[in-house]
């Protein structure tokens, strides 16, 4: 009896020790996770006074070192000096949703959605100098420097408009899948990659011929919007509204890697030097490590509910977004730790 009790208590002691060790490891692991430094650390922030509405897409003027923002509800294109970290101009053009830069002339082009036009802004005076009318409401736009053409997505339609920015006129309409979203240009292949949220496809467009040459399904990403390019590895990234990120091989047009991100991600941006992809969604920025063959989701970084746009400063690697908290608005940056 004594030996049986001894064995029983020895087993019980071992169980308690194991249970205690598991509890210790759980608590220690949780504490270590809580104490782990964030992937992104806060950088400079620029206050934006007297605006509280929805922000559009962000872009960068790398030559002038400027951040270009769009305010849909406040009818303003905003221009920030990143060297001084300050807002230097607010151009009233109407409900602007996106901007593009012509590096040769220094002009900016603003997609003024409800007004069905492109506003031309002088990069020196920071004033509107021209207007290009279009057949419908405008969305995202892209300046393609090789042929000096401006590509404008027809919001909620099935068209991509090709504009001659020097002649300030529409020169061609390309039929694309419904609800064209964002696009990126590949200088090596001369192709434009355009997402469609309604069809979950990427349209591959030959910029010389101004013709669609392929459609690539984005599954498992559904409702693709944000798009970015890794030219060194011939990869295309597309963020789905359903919380899936996919990477395409540009040679085959096939999905070769996936990662989980948050739902309703808007704009995404790729840092070619650090090989990091940033996906901007409501409340969270999702950094992705693209150094290997796959996509590795890193620790997400809290931003704001309306911070669904993002752009990377290639000089400093700062990650910029704009947002409002309902009372105040900001252009805010984060840096890689």
Largest β-sheet summary: 5 strands, antiparallel
The CATH superfamily name of the largest domain is YVTN repeat-like/Quinoprotein amine dehydrogenase
Number of domains: 2
- Tell me the number of helical segments per DSSP (H or I, 4 or more residues long): 1
Low-pLDDT sequence parts? 1-35
Characterize the structure shown.
With 337 residues, this protein is mostly beta strands. It has 2 domains: 1-36; 40-336, Methylamine Dehydrogenase, Chain H. It contains 1 helix and 29 strands. It has one helix spanning 2-35, and strands spanning 40-48, 59-61, 66-71, 76-81, 86-92, 96-101, 108-112, 117-121, 128-133, 138-144, 149-154, 159-164, 169-175, 180-186, 191-196, 201-206, 211-217, 227-230, 235-239, 244-249, 254-260, 268-271, 276-281, 284-289, 296-297, 301-302, 311-312, 319-324, 329-336. Strands 22, 23, 24, 25 and 26 form a 5-stranded antiparallel β-sheet that branches. A hairpin with a 6-residue loop joins strand 8 and strand 9 (128-133). The model is unreliable at 1-35 (pLDDT under 50).
């Amino acid at each position: 009896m004594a030996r049986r009790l001894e064995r029983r208590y020895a087993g019980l002691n071992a169980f308690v020790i194991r249970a205690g060790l598991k509890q210790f490891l759980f608590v220690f692991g949780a504490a270590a996770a809580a104490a782990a430094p964030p992937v992104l650390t806060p950088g400079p922030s620029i206050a934006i006074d007297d605006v509280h509405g929805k922000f559009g897409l962000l872009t960068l003027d790398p030559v002038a070192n400027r951040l270009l923002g769009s305010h849909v509800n406040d009818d303003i294109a905003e221009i920030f000096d990143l060297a001084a970290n300050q807002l230097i101009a607010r151009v009233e053009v109407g409900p602007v949703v996106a901007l593009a830069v012509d590096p040769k002339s220094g002009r900016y082009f603003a997609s003024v959605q409800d007004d069905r036009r492109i506003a031309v802004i002088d990069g020196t005076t920071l004033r509107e100098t021209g207007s290009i009318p279009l057949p419908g409401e405008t969305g995202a736009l892209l300046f393609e420097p090789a042929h000096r053409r401006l590509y404008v997505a027809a919001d909620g339609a099935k068209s991509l408009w090709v504009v001659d920015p020097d002649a300030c006129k529409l020169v061609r309409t390309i039929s694309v899948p419904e609800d064209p979203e964002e696009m990126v240009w590949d200088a090596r292949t001369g192709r434009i990659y355009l997402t469609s949220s309604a069809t979950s496809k990427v349209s591959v467009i030959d910029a010389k011929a101004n013709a669609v040459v392929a459609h690539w399904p984005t599954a498992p990403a559904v409702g693709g919007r944000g798009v970015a390019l890794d030219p060194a590895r011939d990869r295309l990234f597309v963020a789905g509204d359903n919380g899936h990120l996919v990477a395409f091989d540009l040679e085959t047009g096939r999905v070769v890697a996936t990662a989980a991100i948050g739902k309703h991600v808007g704009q995404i941006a790729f840092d070619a030097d650090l090989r990091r992809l940033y996906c901007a969604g409501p409340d969270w920025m999702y950094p992705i490590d693209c150094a290997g063959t796959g996509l590795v989701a890193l620790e997400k970084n809290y931003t704001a509910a309306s911070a669904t746009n993002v752009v990377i400063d290639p000089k400093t690697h700062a990650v910029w977004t704009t947002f409002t908290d309902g009372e105040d608005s900001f252009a805010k940056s984060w840096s890689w730790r």
